[in-house]
Amino acid sequence: MTTMKWLIRREFAEHRGMFIKAPVIVALLILLLVSLAVFTGVGEAHEGQDAYALLPSPEKVRLLLNTAYMASFAPLFLMQGVILFFYSLATLYSERSDRSILFWKSLPVSDRITVLSKVITALVCVPVLNLIITTITSLLLILVMCVALCFKGYNLFSLVFLTPTIYLTPLQLLALLPVYVLWALPTVGWLFMVSGWARSKVFLWAVGVPLLIIAVLKITTTAYGLDWNIDWLVNHVILRGLDGLFPGIWHAFSPDSADPLLNQHQGLDPGMILKSAWLSLGAIHVWLGALCGAAMMGAAIRMRRWRDDD
């Protein structure tokens, strides 16, 4: 356990800018831009008008703020998918390219533990850290909106901050972590395997080859009039294997589950999001994908053990 802890700390030390600085900078930019927009919009209201006449009912305002609170999680979650994609793609390749692997292999740490520490960093530690940063950012955005409305005599502090949704949403999103791990395993496994195998141009191997396969299959079926279900292969194998690191991807593969997410009385309902996400685990392809991801991680471990670019 101590070894795993130090290996994870090593990953954060080597990728501090990617894991910590970049999300914090983006969060501050979002906070700054939204604050400017909110205070500008409130400041343009006519001085002689009653704020309560300008705004909807308090209940509708609370609904809008709750929806804005949920929606404010999206930018950093999208950024998380991009960061983890490139981290997973480069993590094994970069230590071979800069020859730092020679130093790390001189230590009494197995390849299995080393690769597992990278997987845990990508699938558990970074998402949890990003959730903390996102929650703080979202709460500050809601606070800024309430302060801006307060200048116009519209006090929403008690209405918003006594709503259980504000405090339960981060816990409900944290409960999505096991679902996220299972959906992301195929992508992480594929990227780690390519990172451990490719001698150069890892992005082209990881993304270009699957896209080339799609193009070849499309051209072949069109040219020879073959009745192959290429769309199923593209959507459920190739694209599924490339976009699993983006939170909420399970809704794209379970379209019906997205309908109840927008509750007409609560806006975006985190409880329904949590329920629909866990229901997606009833699909057999999720578990098959997770098994394939685990198998590819096993291949990545063996490649790290025996791969030699000399």
Give the CA-CA distance, first to last residue. 33 Å
Count the beta strands.
Answer: 2
The chain-level structural class is mainly alpha
> How many individual domains?
1
| Oligomer category | single chain
Overall outline:
globular
Helix content range: over 70%
What is the element string, with H for helices and E for strands?
A: HHHHHHHHHHHHHEEHH
- Beta fraction: under 5%
Low-confidence stretches: none
Mean pLDDT across residues: 84
What gyration radius follows from the Cα positions, in whole Å?
23 Å
Q: What strand line-up does the widest sheet have? A: 1-2
Biggest sheet overview: 2 strands, antiparallel
The helix count comes to 15
Overview of the molecule:
The chain has 310 residues and is mainly alpha-helical. It has one domain. Helix content is 77%, strand content 1%. Helix 2 packs parallel to helix 7, helix 5 packs antiparallel against helix 7 and helix 5 runs parallel beside helix 10. The relative contact order is 0.13.
